[in-house]
Amino acid sequence: MSFLDLLGPLLFIIFIIMVIGIAAFVVKLSDAIDKQEKVIKTLFRIIEENQAEARNAIDAFESTREKVVSVSTRVESVEFELKGMRDKMKEMALKK
Cα-flanking dihedrals φ and ψ of residue 72, to 5°? Predict the structure, then answer.
C-alpha cells in the first residue's frame, strides 16, 4: 500500500468530518437565531406596552392641558385689562 492508496479514504474521512462540523455549526447558529427571535419578540412586546402606557398618560393629561390653556387665556385677559386700567390712570394723572 502506497501513500496514494491511503490518500483517497483519508480525504473522504476529512470531508465527512468537515460536513459534520458544518452541520453542528448550522444547528448552533439556528439555536442562536431562535433565541434572538424570542428576545426581539419580547422587546417589541415591551415597547408596545410602553407605547400604550404613554398614550394613556398623554390622554389623561389632555384635560389638564386644556384647563391650563383656559387659565392662561384668562390671565392674559386680566393682564390686558390691568394694562388698560393702568394706562387710563396714567392719563388721568397727567391731566391733573
Answer: -60, -40
